[in-house]
Amino acid sequence: MQFIDVTNPSKDYALELGVSFEDWSYSIVGDNVLSAKGSLTNSCSSWLSVSDPYFSLAPGESKRIQVTLNVPKDMSTQNETPVHTSMLFVTQLNPRARSDRDGATIRLAVRSGIKIYHRLNGREQQDIDITNISYLTVDSMGDFLAADYDVHSNTWMEGKVRTELINQENGKKINIEDIGFYALPKDVRKQYIQLPNDLPSGKYVASVIFLYNDQESVKVGELEFDHVAKK
Questions:
Q1: Are the CB atoms for 189 and 30 separated by under 8 Å?
Q2: 3-state secondary structure (DSSP) of residue 47
Q3: 42-82: per-residue pLDDT in tens?
Q4: What letter would DSSP give residue 58?
Q5: Sorted alphabetically, which Gene3D superfamilies does this protein's record hold (predicted)?
Q6: How many CB atoms lie within 10 A of CB 35?
Q7: How many Å apart are CA 49 and CA 22, to the nearest integer?
Q8: Separation CA 134–CA 165 (nearest Å)
Q9: Is residue 74 helix, strand or coil?
């Protein structure tokens, strides 16, 4: 059981609000993807209920909503899907009419989402496999490294991708800013790492380092590539 506080920040407009659930997952590049309630194998949307599925808030008023998750009795730590997720949405049901600069009427509504995550009891296991690293050029965007990796875990993972470049001709080391990542069990992912726009031409060795499990676990992949600076 958890609680969510919802507040109407308006000074002159009452809100009519509804609570709903959808499934969510990550795309191959780590973006959030929404799906219909109960459509994903890792969904827990049908396990969830709220104390007030519909309610009103006067200007400046707040309300605490109780969220309850009832796990099916036949679930166990041996289940093939150890992590279940859902997205709770609070949606404004009475959009407010406003006019733009040209006088056209626009109806504005607010929708806020909260991720819900459930994991079965048991020892946490976090691991990834780097399956490929490649170098590519996108004319309109620049040069990138693309690191493919598979997630082997029984928990929601959080970590960082750290990239170091070594110029093989002069030994100069270049560090690229860390990139954060989140992942779910069984995810198959691709991480794009943009190279500096002013990177000089030359032969390079790239080390792509995944740090996770509170940075106690590390996986490293390397790639040699030739880079030609843009004129």
A1: yes
A2: helix
A3: 999 999 999 999 999 999 999 999 999 998 887 765 567 78
A4: -
A5: Immunoglobulins
A6: 14
A7: 13
A8: 14
A9: coil
202-223 pLDDT, tens per residue?
999 999 999 998 878 899 999 9
User: To 10 degrees, the CA torsion angle through 84, 86, 56, 62?
Assistant: 70
| DSSP track, 1-40 | -EEEEEE---SS--EEEEEEEEEEEE-TTS-EEEE-TT-S
CA 131, distance to chain mean position in Å, is 21
6 with 166: CB under 8 angstroms? no
Tokens representing residue 168 in the block: 């093989």
**And the tokens for 226?**
């030739």
Residue with tokens 């920040």: 9
CA-to-CA distance for 131 and 223, rounded, in angstroms?
A: 12
| HEC per residue, 174-215 | EEEEEEEEEECCCCEEEEEEECCCCCCCEEEEEEEEEEECCC
